Amino acid sequence: MEETLLAVSLARNTRGEERLRPISKCLTLLIEIHPINNTKVLKAVDCRVRVQFLHQETDRRSVLESHLLLLTEDGYVDLYHILLTKQEGYRVVMANPERLAKTAERIVEDLSWVQWDGHTQRLYYLTHKDKFLLRCLQFYPNHNCETVMELPLELPANPFRTVKFVNLGYDHYHMERPELELVRMEVFTNRIGSMCVCYSQPLKDKQELIYTVLLVHKDCSKTFRVSLGSDQSQQKPTQLHPLFIPMGYYILVYLQDYFLHCINTRQQEMLCHSLFLSGHDVELGLQCQSANITVLHAEEESCGSLLDLDSGTIHTADLSPAYLLQILRSDTSSRCPSSKADPQHLAALHCLLVYMGNDPNLELKIIEWLCDNVTAFETFDQIQEFILASLYRISYEKSLSLDKVLPYSSVFDKKGVPVCLLAIPGVLCTTEQHIEPVLKGKGFWTELQWNTERTKYLDTVPNPRYRTSHIQADWDKLRSERRPSSHMNHLEENTKKVLSMVDTWCLDKKLVPLFQEEDHQQRVLIGLTVDKLREHLNRHLPRLGKKKIDSLVVCYVAKLLELIRHMLESVWLKYKLGPHVLCLTQQGSPAEWSVCHFMFRILEATRGLFLPLPPGYHTLLAVFAVRCLPHQTFLQYIDHGFLQLTETFLSRLMTDLDNNDANERLKFSILKRLPQPMEQRIYHMWDHPVSSASISRDYVRTLMEKQNKNKGFASTGRDKTGFRPEFLPLTYLAKTLSDIEEQALNPFEEQENVDAKFVEETALKQTLILLGFEEK
Question: Do 719 and 575 share a structural domain?
Fold first, then answer.
């Protein structure tokens, strides 16, 4: 009952005889709908007027006041405070309507452009004295307002011949006379603290369009000059300006029949992370001309809304996953063949993974594309991009400043970025740093100010983006440690947190035998990755807090292991592999060779980024490799460090393969390549004379070294038992072994594969060698 007021702005028809009457062309009325139906004239002028109520305070039971903005083409904004009163206990009417004009408060003067954002209660307007300034008035729940932003702009001398109203109703005047709009401008914000100011200059010679996007949260602006091409120059454009459509992560710039440019507002360093599509195939999917479409700033979140003025329908703007997948699957681009199409593939991949990547079905389709296109592109590794972009997606909504400190693309790590990734054919981009906005205020403005300050700080820091390769020195140092330490225990705790989360995620799926092995090296690398990433975020983004950073980092590394499992499961299902693939006695099939090749590509991608793999990955890959590769190639992969041998794999190799000539040579070759601690453990698993010889030699060498340290080789001709030696070395050895074994357990009691006679012969031979009577 209290929502009784209606504000209306009318344009009178002044044709014919009415033009001779001295009446105002525009009329603004304030109407009491109920119960009195009273009408009050607020303005009667010859210029266009817009009216807009401010939000009411919804938490109050009774609202006996309303606040109305009145914006005019003469370049000022008034704020009316309309007091209400109750009569007879229920009739709500205006109090003192005759004094209404005296309540008006002039809050803006000398504006040439204005935009109203109802969802945030913000009024953006452009003024010009010595320079153009974009200002913002923020209205608060108590309806007080303050100027929270000033941003200098470089615009033409007279950007608007008449005031342009944005988001204040359909502007018939500008739609009928678009030539009066010398610059089209719009402001878009997002709740996480991003702000983009977009403006374009009108199409003049039909050859080139110029538009600028100011990324206030990144403290930079980008100006694009797009060549429309001579082949299309004879066509008359359907619009003088492009449409700017907000998509949260992207700003879409659309010129019908020419191009659609998806500008990445979060990773703006290189053009290859923005998607540019051109030609007649690019369309919004609407049945009307783009000149008859207006963009509605209905929400602050991801997608903008489009109003079709012909049909009066509202559409939600979004990108088509099917079309982007089609771009991925295409070998060449209609615009640029060969490797020059790589930027389009890269941008489409990132758009699918980051902007649309919360869809599990879409992720499976991308993995399927990875399986079908194993060979890397000329300019980037698609598996690395899949991993980094997917990991970035799970964290980018936490804070805008994570954009500059988390890995986003492997392109940043390349020493020399390919030229084709730095430019888009037909598009010239110039970047201006430090646009110097003046910000204050609460809520969103505090976040935006912190983002701009953090951007300035990170611009001064060398390599602020976390690079996984930075942990290599720590990793090499840890691998050389032989004894447990407090630091190693700390890393193991990190690993347990990650693996417990991964196991929780995949309780219902154990298709691929991963996360089931005690892989010491990978466990250390997982824990080290958590530690280094946590340290990096705490150093550069302390505002997030240690608890939030710790949770983010653990989830980040767990998601990495989960992504690798997803890739393996997809390729496992594609080639219909079963448990028989782990049988070492069978030769690998063509399907298993394809899986092996894909696993090598994953290994190559993760090694290039120095990322950990799930425990069990190296065992599984070694099983595939020994079955699919020629033995000589398999050994070369070990020599070059590409294959990492695990005890699980070696134990199966020694026990599952028989001792025919080929297998025996393979086992000998592998044992020669093992480090000594692992070699001693593996020898015990092989039922072969050579393993017995090795065990015997190690045993005798250990005993003799201990004895040498204690007594040396001094000996008398007769011992305490009266035994007279016939061969001194053998007598000495027998006496030493007898003395030691009297106080020790028999080391061969639990060894099934030891020949006592063979041990005796070996001991004699070893003694002769140690005493110098026989050469090795």
Answer: no
* 719 vs 725: CA distance, rounded Å: 9
DSSP 83-98: EEEEETTTEEEES-GG
Query: At 86, which amino acid appears?
Result: K
pLDDT at 716: 46
Residues 486 and 625 in one domain: yes
Q: Looking at the structure, do residues 619 and 727 belong to the same domain, yes or no?
A: no
- Quick one: 713 and 640 in the same domain? no
Give the model's pLDDT for residue 416: 67
Same domain, 562 and 617: yes
- pLDDT tier, 715 (very low <50, low <70, confident <90, very high otherwise): very low
Select the more confidently predicted residue: 672 or 104: 104
Which amino acid, one-letter code, is at 316? Answer: T
Q: Note the pLDDT of residue 482.
A: 65
Q: Which residues pair with 215 in a beta bridge?
A: 196, 220
In the 8-state DSSP scheme, what is residue 45?
A: E
Residue 301 forms part of a structural domain: no
Range of the domain at 480: 468-644
Rounded to the nearest 10°, the torsion over CA 684, 685, 688, 691 is -30
User: Residues 159-164: contacts with CB within 8 Å, 24+ apart?
Assistant: 159/112, 159/113, 159/126, 159/132, 159/183, 159/185, 160/112, 160/113, 160/126, 162/48, 162/73, 163/48, 163/71, 163/72, 163/73, 163/74, 163/75, 163/111, 163/112, 163/113, 163/114, 164/112, 164/113, 164/114
Asked if omega into 35 is within 30° of 0 (cis), the reply is yes
pTM of the predicted model over 0.90: no
Contact 388, 410 (CB under 8 A): yes
The DSSP call for residue 753 is T
Same domain, residue pair 695 and 637: no
User: Does 671 reside within a domain?
Assistant: no
Q: What is the pLDDT of residue 597?
A: 94
* 8 A C-beta contact, residue 339 and residue 378: yes
**Lowest model confidence (mean pLDDT) among 190-199, 476-485, 559-568:** 476-485
Domain co-membership, 486 together with 539: yes
The 8-class DSSP code of residue 225 comes to: E
pLDDT at 370: 93
Task: Supply the pLDDT for residue 334.
Answer: 40
Count of alpha carbons within 13 angstroms of residue 72, beta-carbon side: 21
What pLDDT, on a 0 to 100 scale, did the predictor assign at position 633?
93
- Do the beta carbons of residue 431 and residue 220 sit within 8 Å? yes
- Per residue, what are the HEC states of 595-642? HHHHHHHHHHHHHHHCCCCCCCHHHHHHHHHHHHCCHHHHHHHHHCCC
Domain-terminating residue out of 644, 670, 699: 644
Q: List, for residues 109-148, the tens digit of each pLDDT value.
A: 999 999 999 889 999 999 988 889 999 999 988 878 999 9
Distance CA 670, CA 754 (A): 22
d(CA 593, CA 626): 11
d(CA 263, CA 247): 10
Q: How many domains does the chain have?
A: 2
Q: How far apart are CA 274 and CA 343, in angstroms?
A: 8
* pLDDT range class, residue 467, cuts 50, 70, 90: confident
**Is 380 in contact with 389 (CB distance < 8 Å)?**
no
